[in-house]
């Protein structure tokens, strides 16, 4: 089981996935939500930075520090992370 956490203070558990791939989908949904919120804010993402972790038990298996780019449509972080892992 993989847990997805947003570690930006205060830290909170966002969900879980039965596989790493499922956890990436949970992470992607969280980033999409943050991107939509930043766009709706209308002030852009200046100063916004989010930190996420995918954990398996007590071990952190992936981490992401991410800032929404409101000048462009959302680009899937899960797709990017999957591509990077193919190397």
- Can you tell me the residue ranges where pLDDT is under 50 for at least 5 consecutive residues? none
Q: How do the SSEs run, as a string of H and E?
A: EEHEEH
Number of strands: 4
- Measured between the Cα atoms of the first and last residue, the distance is 24 Å
Give the integer mean of the pLDDT values.
91
Radius of gyration: 13 Å
Considering DSSP H and I runs of 4 or more, what fraction of the residues is helical? 25-40%
Strands in their spatial order, largest beta sheet:
2-1-3-4
Main β-sheet: number of strands, strand sense, barrel status? 4 strands, antiparallel
Helix and strand composition category: alpha+beta
Q: Give the CA-based shape.
A: globular
The total of helices stands at 2
Beta-sheet strand percentage? 25-35%
How many structural domains does the protein architecture include?
A: 1
Draw up the topology in text.
Blueprint lengths: L1 E5 L5 E6 L2 H22 L8 E7 L2 E8 L10 H9 L2
Helix pairs in contact: 1-2
How would you describe this protein?
The protein is 36% helix and 30% strand. It has 87 residues and is of the alpha+beta class. It has one domain. The chain has a 4-stranded antiparallel sheet with strand order 2-1-3-4, with helices on one face. The longest helix has 22 residues, at 20-41.
